[in-house]
Amino acid sequence: MIQVLTTAQMRAIEQTAISSDAVDGRTLMFLAGQGVVRACLARWPRLSQGPKRAKVLCGPGNNGGDGYVIAVTLLDLGWEVEVSAPWGAENLPADAAYFHDLWVTQRVAGPKKAEDWRGYDLIVDAMFGIGLSRPVDLPAVVADAFPPEDERPHTKRPMVVAVDVPTGLCADRGIVLGGGAGCWADLTVTFHRLKPGHLLADGPDRCGAVEIVDIGISGEVAGLPLQQVAVVPASFAKAQGHKFDHGHCIVLAGGAGYGGAARLAARAALRVGAGLVTLVCPDAAVAENASRLDAVMVRSVDGPKALRRMLADRRIGAVVVGPGFGLGQWQVAMIDAALASRIPCVLDADALTLIGRSPELRGKLHDACVLTPHGGEFARLVPELSQPRKGIAGQAAQTPAAKWSQAHQAAQTLGATVLYKGADTVIATGKEVALHAAAYGRAAPWLATAGSGDVLAGLIGGLMARGFSGFDAAKHASWLHTEAALSFGPGLMSEDLPDQIPAVFRQLRIG
What we know:
Blueprint: E1 2-4, H1 7-19, H2 25-43, E2 53-58, H3 62-76, E3 80-84, H4 94-106, E4 122-126, H5 140-145, E5 159-163, E6 187-191, H6 203-207, E7 209-213, E8 226-228, E9 248-252, H7 260-271, E10 276-281, H8 286-292, E11 297-300, H9 304-311, E12 316-321, H10 329-340, E13 345-347, H11 350-357, H12 359-362, E14 369-371, H13 375-381, H14 403-414, E15 417-420, E16 424-428, E17 433-437, H15 452-465, H16 470-488, H17 497-507
Parallel strand pairs: 2-3, 2-4, 4-5, 5-6, 6-7, 8-17, 9-10, 9-12, 10-11, 12-13, 13-14, 14-15
Antiparallel strand pairs: 1-8, 15-16, 16-17
Helix pairs in contact: 2-3, 3-4, 7-15, 7-17, 9-10, 11-13, 15-16, 16-17
């Protein structure tokens, strides 16, 4: 598990460390600033060669204090350094004021101020960091010093590093505060742990790359534990045994002509290691599905009573329902039967729409269910969590909570695991939350293709059939889903995804 800390949790850990005399605030600031410089020189070795110039933008708080440490450190390395404090330095916190005064005493007269950002090799954004929770107007001095965003692809410009997060980015929600104003970075250096905003929404685009610097603190985290999805475990390997020892996954399909999505889910469940997969469909769709499937069995079930009898087989480990399923009353009755069985269940696509329409179905969800909504489905499923909250009379409405918080609240409300899809996927139960960002070298925009979500549902179902909990199955399936897309590359169709799973397993040395 790679831990992710909210801003409140990070502040609490820092304060606990300082209060216990394990470290003092000045030392933390010094280690943070020096860590930023080390990270920059490691990422861009050319910055160590010959005289260089830096522009350091310092804010009015502790993030600005980190900036003054960076300025002094670069000065000691022989750099020409210019510091700009757009909001002044008169009311700095004590530790930041100490390093501001150190900068003032050590700086030397240098060449004339550059006309704009082209005169520097490095721009340092140490203005607000994780402390910003509202929009801020950036003064002209920032605009003049900061490369405009259309210069990002260009190589003949200064490198930009942000301390903790680029100014204007909410460290908890990953959104740009103010609806578009904000800075960006080639490298973002954060401290101790990642923050949710590095992984969610606009965060990966604004942050560039992210480096975590150790500043010598530790401690328990109070509140909801967040984690970043990392590499899948070696427990994917199958032990020897009968096919039923590795789980039987049932995939419910819709009527004739609508079976493609369910077939994608079924093939994914088999590829991820379920010992047996059966696609269940109305009698009129059997021939169509059987002609397209070999290793996946096809079985006709004419209604909810027959499905209940089928699901009485305790060897069945998971049910996947929703892809291409349809939105009629027959489908409502089939979902009801699947939920009544209490077998671990993946609910996707049409199943989510029907649950959103039916309070009765929603009330039958249980803790062995995994729901996989995208944004529109999430809004239909839990509309009470998707709308901006009304403000007090005369005040603007509050924006929705962070995506991770929305998913967590939905999991609590529904009593199930929720996988809130997107490039910034969030997986939540009532007790824990995991974030999976297809970013920072793992971006796979070609996953935005019809049917890829059906494959994800099948991967989750296959893993649940094998005995993984809903939370673990959803986490690992998200990682595998992206890794399979990266293995194939651009030009991907959803049909290609299941066939990439063996290659991913080989790379992981899982056999």
